Amino acid sequence: MDMQDVARNGLVLLGCGKMGSAMLQGWLNGGLPTASVWVIDPNPSDWLRATGVHINADLPESPAIVLIAVKPQMMGDALPAIAAMGNGGTLFVSVAAGTPIAAFEDALGAQSPIVRAMPNTPAAVGRGITAIIGNTHASAGDMDLAEDLLSAVGQVVRLDDEGQMDAVTGVSGSGPAYVFHMIECMARAGEAQGLAPDLAMQLAKATVAGAGALAEAAEETPAQLRVNVTSPNGTTQAGLEVLMNETDGLPPLMENTVRAAADRSRELRDD
Ligand SMILES: NC(=O)C1=CN([C@@H]2O[C@H](COP(=O)(O)OP(=O)(O)OC[C@H]3O[C@@H](n4cnc5c(N)ncnc54)[C@H](O)[C@@H]3O)[C@@H](O)[C@H]2O)C=CC1
Ligand SMILES: O=C(O)[C@@H]1CCC=N1
């Protein structure tokens, strides 16, 4: 099965909030026909209504893919709507944080191919990164199909152990929020140094976006790129002495941040 089969047999999206919309936007931009998409969501957004996809309509009996993008806490209410598609040719892909593959096998049938994925919201502009792992019934073809689908909205990496998903969630699933907060903080700090709010925000956004693009494109490591900015005894050195402090700078703060998110992912499994 490939993306043409997805267009032919249909894609069902269970839950289309922030993450579901980010991915759907990427697929529609990439050419997936709206007529091939069925969304189940009790509260469809204006954006979703305007896309022209089927919303809360009769579902195809055997779609190529069901993408599950509801909150982990809503899973029990939401899964019965798609349970009849289990144990057939449909591939289930869940992006829910915390919810383990075993929970989907219980709800959708032990023979169902299931891929657990952790994407992130830059998928909306084709710049996401998604980690995936399949259950024993997910064939090589199923994994390739999941990778094809998710590659349409950014990079895909495969995990070999479901236990890695909590750490992945702490780094890249939640990570965009850390970076957005860094933009907010840089802009606020610029204001504190006398810049107008709009200018401070423009400088902060462009700096984070440009540094990210350079980090991705350059041959050098991020550490070397940092050194390239840092003139001896110059301004960057003065700033980094605060930011890189091992006691109260970014290293312990980021370690605690990622740990807290990963711990929460572990807790969600047990909720
Ligand atoms: N927002 C993010 O950055 C990321 C979110 N995720 C995961 O994606 C999933 C969705 O998260 P968000 O999109 O942020 O949440 P959200 O709250 O924006 O979207 C959830 C959607 O599910 C719908 N919904 C509620 N009950 C339903 C039901 N019974 N049947 C069908 N739809 C139902 C809601 O109306 C809403 O539109 C979560 O499991 C989360 O862990 C994963 C990676 C990143
Ligand atoms: O905050 C959350 O629980 C979800 C999972 C990763 C990003 N957002």
Kindly list the characteristics that best describe this protein.
single chain; 271 residues; alpha/beta; Rossmann fold; ProC C-terminal domain-like fold; 2 domains; eight-stranded mixed sheet; elongated; binds 1,4-dihydronicotinamide adenine dinucleotide; binds (2S)-3,4-dihydro-2H-pyrrole-2-carboxylic acid
Q: Care to count the β-strands?
A: 8
The CATH architecture classification of the largest domain is: 3-Layer(aba) Sandwich
String of helices and strands: HEHEHEEHEHEEHEHHHHHH
The fraction of residues assigned to DSSP E strands is 5-15%
- Main sheet overview: 8 strands, mixed
Query: Which class best fits the helix and strand makeup?
Result: alpha/beta
Family: Belongs to the pyrroline-5-carboxylate reductase family.
Binding site for NADPH: 56
EC number: 1.5.1.2
Enzyme class: oxidoreductase
Describe the structure concisely for a colleague.
With 271 residues, this protein is of the alpha/beta class.
Question: What can you tell me about this protein's structure?
Answer:
- The structure is a single chain.
- With 271 residues, the chain is of the alpha/beta class.
- The protein folds into 2 domains: 3-166, NAD(P)-binding Rossmann-like Domain (Rossmann fold); 175-270, Orthogonal Bundle (ProC C-terminal domain-like fold).
- Helix content is 50%, strand content 13%.
- An 8-stranded mixed β-sheet has the order 3-2-1-4-5-6-7-8, sandwiched between helices.
- β1 (11-14), α2 and β2 (37-40) form a beta-alpha-beta unit.
- α7 crosses α12 (250-270) and α8 packs across α9 (197-217).
- It starts with a helix and ends with a helix.
- The protein binds 1,4-dihydronicotinamide adenine dinucleotide (NAI) and (2S)-3,4-dihydro-2H-pyrrole-2-carboxylic acid.
- (2S)-3,4-dihydro-2H-pyrrole-2-carboxylic acid is lined by residues 97, 169, 173-174.
- (2S)-3,4-dihydro-2H-pyrrole-2-carboxylic acid binds at residues 97, 169, 173-174.
- NADPH binds at residue 56.
- GO terms for molecular function: pyrroline-5-carboxylate reductase activity.
